[in-house]
Design brief:
alpha+beta; 2-enoyl-CoA Hydratase, Chain A, domain 1; Pdz3 Domain; globular; 23 strands; 3 domains; single chain; six-stranded antiparallel β-sheet
Length: 678
């Protein structure tokens, strides 16, 4: 059986040969040269970068250290000090050599998995599996590898059983855990054998770029296309969000107003098992195909036809013909909604305008072409603010909790909607030169009370906005202890534009996102590795997750520059903050929801510090049930807090932020009344 599987993997039509392509050398040399000449650090392509590249590459391929043997790592380590120099010469043969071994090891592990899952497991045995990454090592012998997989599979079976016991299994899922795991790993093996040159060179070159810092990334042509779609919030296709689960392409969301939504036949949780182009094109089997490849087949120009072979949750097959259309990704753009909270002195409810902003997006191509209606964060938020003013809102809350950044110009322009003039940020380049970036428009669209909601996921461009608002004393920052702490600026270099100066103008090269500058607040402080600290902190699990910039390897260090001159608004002061914190603390301690958040945080800390997990079924399920019970009712800032069809969700967390906002309004009016009385 095992030998047959290996032959199938080697000879199947979906198994791709893996040797360096004709364009690899050109792309590698170009990326290496740009990293050497343009990166903020000015780091050479030396031994240190080589060793970092080595670690990054193996961490990407085998993060749990379950495929390679220690002997493999030892053999490949003989070249680890030379990798950067080899890439500089256009030689990425090392990546292909490693990946060929990787696929052999995967095939061996598949045979082990099949054997283990076919045999009965002893779940009454008291044994511990190491889960702490710093304690996990590569197996040295086949016997050790087999035992590692025996424990891993037991653990995964127990996870699936726990999900089923808690009612969290996939809808319509009746598959036994053993069968599901076997399918999952066979699908993974098949997808690894489908890996092509573009994907592998992308992984390897990104291992090099992230050896300089975690945000410098090589993007292959396919990834570049996806990045551009994300920035312009528009694509052409059927209008469905897809996910890959155990080899199946699953419909996770139907985008409102898209082609699939208007057609009405494709449903959430449907499995797409075949895709055909046009009315008469052959329907190709896409089971076990990589998600990116399936998405590429389904996407296409507006008004063209795609046919989908679908397996429903009732295991019924149907063929759906859909005409593709242009789709606006509404779930990622700015949305606003008005809520009432508290009361004025005269009895009228306070009207608070809440804006959810998940990213700083801009259709750069549309802007460069001079399109009048190109997609822009600042334009969208301006319209929302003007609508808020027409409807008489008393204060604005801007939600940046899941905003990971985006366009630097948009961050500057959007900050300008809330201040009159002055510097929004400063940037320093590799030569140490400092450049201020002022507000380009002296008009202030919203001059009233302002509150920003942040989390540890608020990064980069959102930290520029939060830092400037805090420095100008323009508004409050409420949320996690601090934001993400990404204080660097990346420049996106279109490598295809370099083709005219290179040997092969036909080569598709993709793009390079490279860190070229570090940004600083108007006050001169960097947010790098420290973030923007909240004026008022609320309990949140995300504060305690290891997802900040300081948790990333090879992050650029913290720095400072001289402050710029600017006038503050005086809308925030220490006395106000002390009062606001006290009032909020009283409400939070009385809140059942926040009490559960605090309990969940303590439970997470215990789980986080564990080095092992017990594989005794009764003990495992009991611990898991307790953990899930604590998390059952938590639905706060760790959620996306967003539903495309329903708009912004008003939950206990947003209610507390609005209560803080009402208190803020009360304090401001008290000061004004006091001055008038004098």
């Amino acid at each position: 059986m095992a030998g047959v599987i290996l032959v199938i993997f080697a000879s199947s039509p979906w198994a791709k040969s893996i040797y360096p392509g004709s364009s690899d050398k050109l792309i590698a040399k170009t990326v290496a040269a740009l990293m050497k000449s343009e990166h903020l650090s000015g780091h050479l392509l030396d031994r240190e970068i080589s060793e970092r590249c080595f670690r990054n590459f193996f961490q990407t391929l085998d993060p749990q250290k379950v495929f390679f043997y220690q002997s493999d790592i030892d053999a490949f380590s003989r070249q680890k000090e030379k990798l950067a120099g080899m890439i500089e010469q256009g030689d990425i043969g090392f990546a292909y050599e490693v990946f060929r071994t990787y696929r052999v090891r995967i095939d061996e592990r598949i045979r082990t998995i099949e054997s283990l899952l076919a045999a009965p497991q002893d779940f009454s045995r008291d044994e511990e599996m190491v889960i702490a990454k710093d304690l996990i090592t590569y197996a040295r012998t086949p016997a050790e590898a087999r035992d590692r997989w025996r424990q891993r599979l037991k653990y995964e079976i127990l996870l699936l059983r726990a999900d089923k016991a808690m009612g969290k299994a996939e809808s319509g899922d009746t598959m036994a855990p053993e069968k599901r795991l076997l399918r999952r790993y066979r699908s993974f093996a098949k997808q690894m054998h489908q890996t092509d040159n573009e994907e592998l060179s992308g992984i390897y070159l990104t291992a090099l770029t992230t050896a300089f810092d975690p945000h410098s990334v090589y993007m292959s042509p396919r990834i570049t296309e996806n990045f551009e779609i994300a920035m312009r919030l528009e694509l052409e296709g059927i209008g469905a969000s897809l996910n890959s689960v155990d080899g199946y392409t699953i419909v996770k969301e139907i985008i409102p107003g898209g082609a699939a939504d208007r057609d009405g036949r494709l449903k959430v949780e449907d499995k797409i098992i075949g895709v055909g182009e046009g009315i008469n094109g052959e329907v190709h089997d896409v089971v076990d195909m990589k998600l990116n490849d399936v998405v590429k087949m389904i996407r296409g120009k507006a008004d063209t036809i795609v046919r989908l072979q679908v397996l429903t949750v009732k295991d019924e097959q149907k063929l759906i013909t859909i005409k593709r259309a242009k789709i606006e990704l509404k779930d990622r753009d700015a949305q606003g909604e008005i809520f009432e909270a508290g009361h004025h002195g005269k009895g009228r409810a306070v009207k608070i305008g809440v804006i959810d902003l998940p990213s700083f997006y801009m259709d750069a191509a549309g802007a460069n072409k001079g399109q009048a209606d190109y997609k822009s964060t600042t334009r969208d938020v301006r319209k929302i603010l003007e609508d808020f003013k027409r409807k008489g809102v008393d204060a604005v809350v801007l939600d940046l909790r899941r905003n990971g950044g985006g366009s630097l110009p948009e961050a500057i322009n959007l900050t300008g909607l809330f201040i009159m003039d002055g510097p929004v940020l400063q940037v320093k380049d590799a030569e140490g030169r400092i450049y201020p970036h002022p507000d380009p428009d002296e008009r202030m669209v919203w001059s009233g009370p302002l509150v920003l909601m942040t989390s540890q996921f608020s990064a980069s461009a959102s930290e520029i906005l939060a830092g400037a608002i805090q420095d100008y004393e323009r508004g409050l920052v409420v949320g996690d202890e601090a934001t993400h702490g990404k204080g660097t600026v990346q420049n996106l270099i279109d490598l295809d534009r370099l083709r005219s100066r290179l040997l092969n103008p036909q080569t598709k090269m993709g793009s390079l996102k490279i860190t070229t500058q570090q940004f600083f607040r108007p006050s001169g402080a960097s947010v790098q590795k420290r973030g923007v600290r909240s004026d008022i902190e609320l309990p949140s699990l995300t504060t305690h997750l290891d997802v900040g910039e300081s948790d990333l390897e090879y992050a650029v260090p913290f720095d400072k520059v001289p402050p710029q001159r600017f006038m503050t608004f005086g809308n925030v002061n220490k006395d106000w903050l002390d009062q606001l914190r006290r009032r909020s603390d009283i409400r939070v301690k009385a809140s059942e929801k926040f009490r559960k958040v605090v309990q969940n945080i303590e439970l997470y800390k215990v789980q986080k510090n564990r080095k092992t997990v017990n594989l005794h079924e009764a003990k495992f399920l009991k611990e898991r049930a307790a953990f899930n019970a604590e998390r059952e009712d938590e639905n706060g800032p760790d959620d996306t807090n967003r539903d495309v069809k329903r708009g912004i969700k008003r939950d206990y967390y947003l209610n507390e932020v609005m209560a803080i906002t009402v208190d803020y309004l009360d304090l401001q009016r008290y000061i004004v009344d006091e001055k008038d009385a004098a």
